[in-house]
Structures are given as C-alpha cells and as structure tokens.
Design a protein that fits this description.
This protein is an alpha/beta fold. The protein has a domain of about 160 residues: 3-Layer(aba) Sandwich (Rossmann fold), CATH 3.40.50.300. Helices cover about 55% and strands about 15% of the residues. It has nine helices and seven strands, in the order H-E-H-E-H-H-H-E-H-E-H-E-E-H-E-H. The strands form two sheets. A five-stranded parallel beta sheet has the order 2-3-1-4-7, sandwiched between helices. The chain has a two-stranded antiparallel sheet with strand order 5-6. Helix 3 crosses helix 4. The chain is globular, with a radius of gyration of 17 Å. The two termini are about 35 Å apart. The structure holds adenosine monophosphate. Adenosine monophosphate binds next to helix 3 and helix 4.
C-alpha cells in the first residue's frame, strides 16, 4: 500500500464519521475517471454507484426491450432518450441500498435529465456535484487505450496501465475486451454530445452551488482525496 493510499483511506474513515454522504453527482467528459472514482467512494462509504452506462450495458447483455433500443444508439455514441434513462434510474433509486446516499455516474447528461433529478430526487440532504477535469488528449488516450476484464470488471490501459501479459487480466487471466464505443471515431461523437448536451448540465449545477471542480490529471488516489475533501466541505457548508 502506498503512502497516498494510506492517507486516502484514512480521510475516508474520518469522513464516514463526519457526514452522511447523501446524493453525489460525478460530472466530467467520457474517460475523465468518473467510474473509477465512483468505485473508490463506494468502497469508502458503502453507498451504491449508479452508472447509467453500466445499467444500459447490462440491459443490452440481457436483451431487454430497453437494451434493444439502447444498443444501436450506444454503438454510435448517441444518447438514449431522456424518458427511458429517467425511468431506469427511478427504478434503481427505489432499491433500499440508496438509503444513505448514492453516486450518480453518467447521469444526468442532458438538461431535461437534470430537471427530472431536481424534481424527483427528494433526499433528506441536497445533492452535491463534483466535476472531474481532464485534458482532451489525455481523455483520448484513456478511452482508446481502455481494456476491460469481462470477468472481474478491472480496467486496464494499453498506454498507461498495462496488464503483465498483454491482452489478459492479471487477476483471473480472462481475455480483455474493448468497448465498441471506445474507438477514436465514436469518441469524437461522444465528445460532441458531451459539449452540446452535457455542458448545460454543468452550468446548471454550477449555478445551483454545492458544486466543485477537481483536477482529474492527478493520480487516482490524489483525485479521490480531492473529491472526498470537496464533498466534506460542501456537506459542512450546506
Ligand atoms: P458511459 O458508460 O457513461 O460512457 O455511457 C455509454 C453510453 O451509454 C453513452 O455514450 C450513451 O449512449 C449511453 N448513456 C449513458 N448514460 C446516459 C444518459 N444519462 N443519457 C443518455 N444516454 C446515456
């Protein structure tokens, strides 16, 4: 365990005592590390990560009606309709594990989704929003180099976090896969959708307050520490 890991974990324990995490919204471009950071916060606070991308991919894998609609759109980097995504999130939020809070990852992604959140998420404490900032070229390397273990869900990168044996998971030896939307061509479309449709969401939460930005170019542990400190500050000031 590295020293930064120790300090990140310690900070997490202190926070667990200090705050009810409540609803947390992670914002940032595709590849900015929302999923990775959400998993760290899940580990520390025991609240669920609600990733609309993961929920949609599960629907595609199970061949549900929603999955059939989402599949083609996702392959092209286009958004699934607000109504369908809102309904999917509503069903997920009804599960009892969201009692102390939850981390929304990849949602809301459009202004109508954000307005739906404002009127439908009635938690005892208000939502806090954290935006992770990462440079565009770095995002492109993260996305096009990303490889996933289909078995244990670990994420590797052929440029910066390579497995010991190229193409195979270090933990369980499964052959790594690449998401069909993690190509440069599709990524450009995803970034355009982000700029056109998600930028207004960021402004919406910036104006509401309880909003912070963190530098996502730092190490994973450092970004986690920044996020936890920011949430603690926001919760103390609410
Ligand atoms: P992600 O895993 O968050 O990068 O999402 C992968 C894909 O799922 C996106 O490119 C969209 O096609 C779809 N998707 C995920 N979240 C949403 C959302 N909140 N609204 C609409 N489409 C979404």
């Amino acid at each position: 365990m590295t020293s930064s890991k120790v300090s990140a974990t310690t900070t997490g324990r202190e926070l667990t005592k200090l705050v009810t995490p409540g609803p947390i919204l992670l914002l940032g471009a595709p590849g900015s590390g929302k999923g990775t950071q959400a998993k760290e916060l899940v580990r520390l606070w025991g609240i669920p990560q609600i990733s609309t991308g993961d929920l949609l991919r599960a629907n595609v894998a199970q061949g549900t009606e929603l999955g059939k609609v989402a599949d083609a759109l996702m392959k092209e980097g286009k958004f699934v309709s607000d109504d369908l995504v809102n309904q999917m999130v509503e069903a997920r939020l009804a599960l009892p594990d969201t009692h102390n809070g939850f981390i929304l990852d990849g949602f809301p992604r459009t202004l109508p989704q954000a307005l739906w959140v404002d009127s439908h998420i009635l938690f005892t404490i208000p939502l806090v929003a954290v935006k992770i900032n990462v440079d565009y070229n770095q995002l492109l390397r993260r996305i096009t180099g990303r490889r996933n273990c289909p078995q244990c869900q670990r994420i590797y990168n052929v440029f910066m976090h390579t497995p010991k044996r190229a193409g195979y998971c270090d933990v369980d030896g499964s052959e790594l896969t690449q998401r069909s939307d993690d190509t440069e061509e599709v990524y450009k479309g995803r970034m355009k959708a982000y700029a056109d449709l998600t930028a207004p969401v960021i402004e919406h939460y910036r104006q509401q307050g309880r909003f912070v930005e963190v530098d996502g170019d730092l190490s994973v542990d450092e970004v986690t520490t920044e996020i936890k400190r920011a949430i603690e500050r926001l919760r103390r000031n609410q």
